[in-house]
Amino acid sequence: MAQSPPRLKRRREFLRVAGKGNRGARPGLVLQALPGTGAPLRVGFTATKKLGNAVARNRAKRRLREAARLLLGQGAPEGWDLVLIGREATGTRNFSQLTGDLRGLLKQLGVKP
Fold this sequence. Notes:
Layout: H1 11-20, E1 22-25, E2 29-35, E3 42-46, H2 54-72, E4 80-86, H3 95-108
Parallel strand pairs: 3-4
Antiparallel strand pairs: 1-2, 2-4
């Protein structure tokens, strides 16, 4: 079973990725990527209050965590900080479409070939 990649947890880490990194969007999520950190790949997850109550936000983040675990758990590229941001469709989108969105964004931003 694939392990989850290490996490971004501090606000300043999220702000650094948002300020200096690249950004891409799909219907299921927004991905921010900052290359060249020199450390192992780290991932952060967030969902705004626009998504709804705490239950809806937590569901969106759980789905994003699982998609990231499946796509980035084994053989993840080194030296990237990623932030996955939930959108309105994250909680209800078909899971295969959600992983497809993430796969496309990873390719678009050059994280994975």
